[in-house]
Design goal:
- The complex is a heterodimer.
- Chain A is elongated, with a radius of gyration of 19 Å.
- Chain A is mainly alpha-helical.
- Chain A is built from twelve helices and no strands.
- Chain A has helices at about 5-20, 20-25, 25-45, 55-85, 90-95, 100-120, 125-130, 135-160, 165-180, 195-200, 205-215, 225-245.
- By secondary structure, chain B is an alpha/beta fold.
- Chain B contains eleven helices and 14 strands.
- Chain B has helices spanning about 5-10, 60-70, 90-95, 115-125, 130-140, 155-170, 185-200, 215-220, 240-245, 290-300, 315-320, and strands at about 25-30, 35-45, 50-55, 75-80, 85, 100, 175-180, 205-210, 225-230, 230-235, 250-255, 270-275, 280-285, 305-310.
- In chain B, strand 1 (about 25-30) and strand 2 (about 35-45) form a beta hairpin.
- In chain B, helix 4 crosses helix 5.
- The radius of gyration of chain B is 22 Å and the shape is globular.
- The two termini of chain B are about 30 Å apart.
- The chains are: A mainly alpha, B alpha/beta.
- The interface of A and B includes residues 4 and 83 of A.
Amino acid sequence: MNTTGLATLARREIRRTFQIINQVIWPPIISTLLYVLIIGFSVGGRIESASGVPYVVFLIPGLVALTVIEASFAESSASLFQHRFMNSIQELLVAPLSAVELVLGFITGSVVRALLLGHLLMLFLPIFTGRWPVHPLLCIVLMTLIAVFFSAVGLIMGLWAEKWDHIAIPQTFIFTPLIWLGGAFTPLTLLPEAARPLAFANPLFYLLDGFRFALLGVAEVSPWLSITVTTTFAVATLSVALQLFQRGWKLRV
Amino acid sequence: MNSPTELFEVFQISQPVAPVAAIDVSGLQKRYRGGALAVDGVTFGVAPGDFFAFLGPNGAGKTTTINAIVGLARFDTGTIKVFGHDVASDYRLARQAIGLAPQEFNFDRYLSVEEILVYQAGYFGVARDVARERAKVLLRQFSLWDKRDDEVAKLSGGMKRRLSLARALVHAPQILILDEPTAGVDLELRLELWDFLRALNRAGLTIFLTTHYLEEAEQLCNRVGIISQGRLVALDNKEALLAHQSHSRLELLFERPLDSLPVAWQGLQVTLEMDGRRAIIHQTEVEDVPRILQASEAAGHRLQNLHLARRNLQDIFLELTGRTNA
């Protein structure tokens, strides 16, 4: 195992995050803050309660998870695509790095960015509502699994994309609808009746519900089910990414 | 650029104990998806310490072969071994032995000049403090020390070439693969790079180079392989290749440009230079010279100067690749 090589790639990815901090760290913090203040307090103040907690409390886990999803996907997809686009990926491909080391290097960078943001945003819970995460360890585990899941999806898209525009496709047409319909901002009981059964077919619902359980101790389905679904998707997407790197798909001509 | 003495103190160029080819390509075949055969059964070996020139026209399969050796391209059939290590099954040791300076710059735009070297060494498993030390030596060696904190985008073409060479050396490889190392550099730097490469080769580094400047190959290399349309058409020591035939090259300088070639020159391999004032006739026998001169005089072209030269690599290249221009 080329651990120095792996660590160097992870360091390079983390370095990249801090080089573009105004693009990738501050904007999600500011927009989440505005969501909490405007939607959570102003609009949410008119909602009695959601899943037995005040609306703003219900909202925060969804916003944190959303940011973790976006950050991990954006980091790995953009970094890999840019590497391919600029041909600098060749610096990695000629080095004695295995597919596992390459994938882990990129994913570590994405997970670090996602966890950094996730932890900063979790502070909004005690700051604005006086509550602390109910199951802090589970919070970290789930946040990591979510980040691995979406970093792996990001890597797959980073390989598949032939132009920048392609990177936006899953975000626009898949993640955003699934997040909104998966109970990120509204409990299932507030969704239109017809959309409710669909939520159970939506993997993001379990991911969001499990994360909310870890933070608030309230859930609509068994947390075990949520943990299982999240883990399964993280492992599955990671395996696909590894397979593609092993085959050198779109990497080695 | 300084002499590479300091470099050799930091980089111990290790030699293999057993007699094994530095690069051993056997039956290499590569077809791009939906495309033509890029490399068609190429077999050759590069011995440790060789300065090997790999020549061929654009699209002949040079870069594809290099990419297969360094791991940037997969191939359909054949085997490639680097110091005995198969590039597919034993890729770590094979890649560790190679330093590549590609034709197109491919630097990481998120890293500074110094970091490019430090990170590249890291990808090859070199510890960070060692990598920093080597980067320092290489940056001084290639006169890039003052630019170490700059972005690569700010470097001139010649500086980028030097950085590319430094990056190829930073993990102390045994083989240097250079794809067009002096493309786009001025004459002064080209000569400096030549001296530097010669010194590296003398110190024991095996060098494999492709170039469009046949003079470069002739000046530097001891062995030559010529590839044309995916097939190897020549593989020999340079001296043997040059001595192989007695043909010479006739250079004629005329007072005015030739608007058309004399009819009696038909069948000769002619290259025109200097807007048509200089005609180079490849593969000429000495006894043909009077006939060639009579034909041009009969066509009304006034000769200013003539030179009958020994065959050079360009003549051989043109002959073997069937081109009229390199």
